[in-house]
């Protein structure tokens, strides 16, 4: 790992800007294969992806989260050294800079379980903190879609959020439970099926405009 660290530190500012421009172009194209290939030749790609984590209204924010997961799957050593940093960003003292960190942990787990398996119990705590609830719900949903069995102790803590006063939180809770195919939530999801509050969610590679009820109905369909 030392040669990689030296190579990353020796990159000039202009080279870093050029690398960042390449990453942006790949993210906008949704070219995650190209991104992982780029990461194979540049050890700083994962760290640069974290620079886009702070604006959830920007498509690049979500593409960067997804991209980090793909890089974790192909180059776990590059992302593994960022796990402690992501956890630090979720500390109370880190302010708004940690918004995307919880989502990133789930996305990394989707592609490379070994990097987050030991900290899965911490997901419950992040779901209980208002600051990290939304991104953690998204991250849990992403991971649960591929590894629901690893989140069996986490998913029950999401059910109470289906009755939260915030529409986006209700929608993300329904979305996450649907991705995890959590059948005990069926009745609570059905109760939301008529909720017409509009929300914006990132799913299937795009920011989509939908309603809480539509998300709940799709989650119910996934349970069946």
Summary, kept brief:
60% of the residues lie in helices and 5% in strands. With 224 residues, the protein is mainly α.
Order of helices and strands: HHHHHHHHHHHHEEH
What's the count of strands? 2
Structural class: mainly alpha
- Beta fraction of the residues? 5-15%
Output the number of helix runs.
13
Q: C-alpha Rg, in Å? A: 18 Å
Secondary structure layout:
Blueprint (H helix, E strand, L loop, with lengths): L1 H8 L3 H17 L2 H10 L3 H5 L9 H16 L1 H5 L2 H7 L11 H11 L10 H7 L1 H17 L20 H13 L6 H6 L6 E6 L2 E6 H12 L1
Helix pairs in contact: 3-5, 5-8, 7-8, 8-10, 9-10, 10-11, 11-13
Can you give a write-up of this model?
It is a single chain. The N terminus is likely disordered. A hairpin with a 2-residue loop joins strand 1 and strand 2. This protein has a domain of 63 residues. Helix content is 60%, strand content 5%. The chain has 224 residues and is mostly helical. The chain has 13 helices and two strands; from the N terminus they run ααααααααααααββα. A two-stranded antiparallel ribbon has the order 1-2.
Record keyword descriptors for this entry.
224 residues, mainly alpha, 13 helices, disordered N terminus, 2 strands
């Amino acid at each position: 790992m030392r040669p990689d660290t030296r190579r990353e530190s020796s990159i000039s500012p202009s080279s870093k800007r050029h690398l960042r421009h390449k990453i942006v172009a790949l993210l906008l194209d949704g070219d995650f294969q190209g991104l992982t290939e780029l990461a194979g030749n540049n050890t700083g790609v994962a760290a640069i992806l974290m620079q886009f984590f702070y604006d959830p209204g920007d498509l690049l924010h979500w593409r960067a989260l997804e991209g980090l997961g793909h890089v974790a799957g192909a180059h776990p050593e590059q992302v593994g050294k960022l796990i402690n940093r992501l956890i630090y960003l979720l500390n109370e003292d880190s302010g708004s800079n940690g918004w995307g960190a919880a989502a990133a942990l789930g996305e990394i787990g989707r592609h490379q379980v070994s990097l987050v398996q030991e900290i899965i119990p911490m997901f419950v705590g992040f779901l209980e903190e208002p600051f990290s609830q939304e991104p953690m719900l998204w991250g849990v949903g992403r991971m649960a879609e591929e590894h629901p069995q690893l989140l069996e102790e986490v998913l029950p803590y999401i059910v109470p959020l289906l009755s939260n006063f915030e529409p986006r939180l209700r929608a993300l809770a329904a979305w996450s439970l649907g991705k995890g195919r959590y059948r005990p939530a069926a009745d609570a999801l059905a109760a939301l099926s008529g909720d017409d509050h509009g929300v914006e969610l990132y799913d299937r590679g795009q920011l989509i405009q939908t309603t809480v009820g539509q998300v709940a109905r799709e989650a119910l369909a996934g349970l069946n």
